[in-house]
Amino acid sequence: MNLHEECLLRYLQNPDELSYSTQVLKLNNFILEKQFLLKNFVAKSSLINYTKHAE
Description:
Elements: H1 3-13, H2 18-54
């Protein structure tokens, strides 16, 4: 069961915890987005800068 399924299940069991589950999902998405950016853009831009200065 992934995080989204767990949050949905928690909401169905306890509808009052919707705001908590929403915050958990937002935080998880934020972390995934930052990891993606670091992996795909920061590493590549430093490689591009390094090769550009090496010429």
